[in-house]
Amino acid sequence: GAVVSQHPSRVICKSGTSVKIECRSLDFQATTMFWYRQFPKQSLMLMATSNEGSKATYEQGVEKDKFLINHASLTLSTLTVTSAHPEDSSFYICSASFQGLGTEAFFGQGTRLTVV
Amino acid sequence: AQSVTQPDIHITVSEGASLELRCNYSYGATPYLFWYVQSPGQGLQLLLKYFSGDTLVQGIKGFEAEFKRSQSSFNLRKPSVHWSDAAEYFCAVNGANNLFFGTGTRLTVIP
Fold it and tell me: Which of A1, A42, A46 sits opposite B98 (nearest CB)?
C-alpha cells in the first residue's frame, strides 16, 4: 500500500518558538493532504485540507496564522506551529490521498508535540 | 452534514471471544466507509473500507465489516480476538473532501 512518512515523530519545544512537521508521500503523488489534531483519548479533529499548489482550507476554529500549512509539491506538505504555547501540545497526524474526493487516505505515523 | 457515531467508548473482551464494534453514520449520499486501528502513540492503519458492491467487506487481521444501508451502520467484527488486537478503533465516513471520524472505541483484551 501507499506509504506516508511524517517527521519528526516526537518534538519538544519551548514556548514562543515555532515547530515544523513534515508529511511526505513516499510512493505516490498526493494531490490532497489533510492535517489532524488528536487530543488524549479523543478522536481526530480535522484542522485543514491542502491541495498541491494552492492555499489550505482550514476548518472552523483553526487559526490559519498559527498553524501554517504549505503543500508545495505533490509529495510534501508541512505544518508549522508558530509561537507555540503549552496548549498546542498534542498529537498531530497527516494523511494523504492521490485523488482526494471519495478515495482512501493514507496516514502518517503522527507527531507528538510537547510545548514546555 | 456528515457524522459518525461510535456508541461504545470502551469494550473489554476475553481473548478468543468474538468482537463487534458498532458504527453508525449520517451521510446524504452513498457513503465511503472505513475502519482504522490506532495503537498507542501511533498513526492510523486501515483495516478495511467499503466503497460499493458486496456489503460484507473483508479486511486485514481477520476483521470484517458489514454495511447496512437501512440501519446506517458499518459494524466491525472479528470472530476470535487476539491479545494484539488491543487498540483504539475508529470508524470514518468520507465526506465531500475529507474524512469524518467517530470518537473511537478502545478495545481491551483480557487473557
Answer: A46
Alpha-carbon gap, residue B81 to A81, rounded angstroms: 40
Report CA-CA distances (Å) from A25 to A6, A39, A58, A89: 9, 24, 21, 25
Q: Which residues touch B70 (CB under 8 Å, ≥6 apart)?
A: none
State the average pLDDT for chain B.
Answer: 91
Instruction: Report d(CA A5, CA A57) in Å as an integer.
Output: 22
Question: For residue A102, what pLDDT is reported?
Answer: 47
Tens-place pLDDT, residues B54-106: 999 999 999 999 999 999 999 999 999 999 999 999 999 876 666 788 999 99
Q: Which of A39, A44, A60, A92 to mutate to test the interface with B (most CBs of B within 10 A)?
A: A44
Please give the torsion angle defined by the CA atoms of residues B1, B36, B49 and B100, in that order, rounded to the nearest 10 degrees: 10
Q: Do A104 and B49 touch (CB under 8 A)?
A: yes
